[in-house]
Every structure is written in structure tokens, then in C-alpha cells.
Write a structure and sequence with these properties.
Length: 207
């Protein structure tokens, strides 16, 4: 019994006191996007980034969510804003931009260039960052050629940057009036819960 107690004191207590004095440092997951990330029409607590934080807390992973969503943001606006947002360390960067470009019919090459520019800035400042890209789609009324080429932007960016890809952020939500607000574009509370699952399936393995 005495030997067991000595072993406990030697191997267990140092780690216990170390963890008490130096608690595990949390890492940051930055969600950088537009109104979808910001939770337009809802409280920030109801938006999918906060729902992701709840899931992270449930599995006791040492990560904190930073919601840097801005309603109406385009890829060009994001490129101009990214330096300011990177003032705090980033371990996982989730990029959700481009939908407003598509809805406005902006040139596809500009959208692609801006999104790549954002990724470049993030990787330059934090070389070990993990990148997650949220794929988006535009309505078919934008034209078959434009819609098809827009859809290709996200998997190509993911491949070129060795990033993880959420194939379509709004999978299971887009086009369903029961899961969207009155504008038919922004998810409601139930819609954000589904979006959370779409994101979590890709994000969780990276934690």
C-alpha cells in the first residue's frame, strides 16, 4: 500500500499541480464570413458558430470560437478587413465568403482572386493554421454558365491550398421555406442547427 502511494505521489501529483498552475491554453477557431456567419435575423447565440462552440464544449476540446461574420460582406470587403481580424492568434480558419459576390453577379475571377488573397494573408501570418473553406452556390437564375463556374471556385481553392472543404454550407437548408427566414435566403433557428451539423462533420476531425 505504501509503495502504491509513493508511486501516486511521484507520477500523478506533479501533473495535477502543473495543470492547476498552467491550465491548458485554448486555441482559436476564426469564422470569417458574411451574414450567414453573423447569424442575420437571429441572436449571435443562435448562429451556427456559437452552436459549434457548444459542441466543442461538450467534448471538452480546448478551442474558442471567434465569430467575425459581417452582414453584406463581399470577398473584396473580406480581403480589406482580414488584416484587422488577424490581430489575435488563429489555429483554425473557416472561410465563408463569396455568396454576396454571386448574388450580385460579380466577376468570378475577382471572387477567386480575393478569396485566395484572404487565404494567403492568413497563412502568411499563421503558417501552421488549418484552413476550412465553406462551399457556396448561387441561384440558377444567374445563368447556367455563371452558376457552374461559381460552384467550382471552392473545391479548387481547397485543393490548391490543402484545405478542408465543406461542399455546400447550406446543404439541406437552401430552398426549404421551413428552414429559412421570410427572405428565403437566411436560415432560421432550425436552419442554423442543420448548418451546424454540416460544419461540424468537417471541423471535428481537425480539433
Amino acid at each position: 500500500m505504501k509503495k502504491i502511494l509513493v508511486t501516486f505521489l511521484i507520477f500523478i501529483l506533479p501533473g495535477f499541480f502543473t495543470s492547476m498552475i498552467f491550465p491548458q491554453q485554448k486555441k482559436n477557431i476564426l469564422f470569417f464570413g458574411d451574414s450567414l456567419t453573423a447569424g442575420y435575423g437571429l441572436s449571435q447565440e443562435q448562429a451556427f458558430p456559437n452552436l459549434i462552440q457548444i459542441k466543442i464544449n461538450e467534448i471538452k476540446a480546448a478551442y474558442s470560437i471567434v465569430n467575425a461574420g459581417l452582414s453584406g460582406e463581399t470577398s473584396a470587403g473580406g480581403l480589406n478587413r482580414i488584416d484587422w481580424v488577424l490581430s489575435r492568434p488563429v489555429d483554425i480558419f473557416v472561410l465563408e465568403l463569396g455568396a454576396n459576390d454571386g448574388l450580385r453577379g460579380l466577376p468570378l475571377e475577382s471572387t477567386r482572386k480575393n478569396l485566395q488573397g484572404i487565404i494567403d494573408k492568413v497563412k502568411q501570418k499563421y503558417p501552421n493554421v488549418k484552413i476550412v473553406i465553406a462551399g457556396m452556390m448561387v441561384p440558377p437564375n444567374m445563368g447556367e454558365t455563371y452558376s457552374g463556374e461559381f460552384l467550382k471556385i471552392y473545391p479548387e481553392l481547397a485543393e490548391n491550398n490543402k484545405a478542408s472543404l465543406i461542399p455546400f454550407l447550406l446543404a439541406g437548408v437552401a430552398g426549404n421555406p421551413d428552414l429559412n427566414q421570410a427572405d428565403g435566403i437566411h436560415p432560421n433557428i432550425e436552419g442554423h442547427q442543420i448548418v451546424t451539423e454540416n460544419v461540424w462533420s468537417i471541423l471535428k476531425p481537425l480539433l
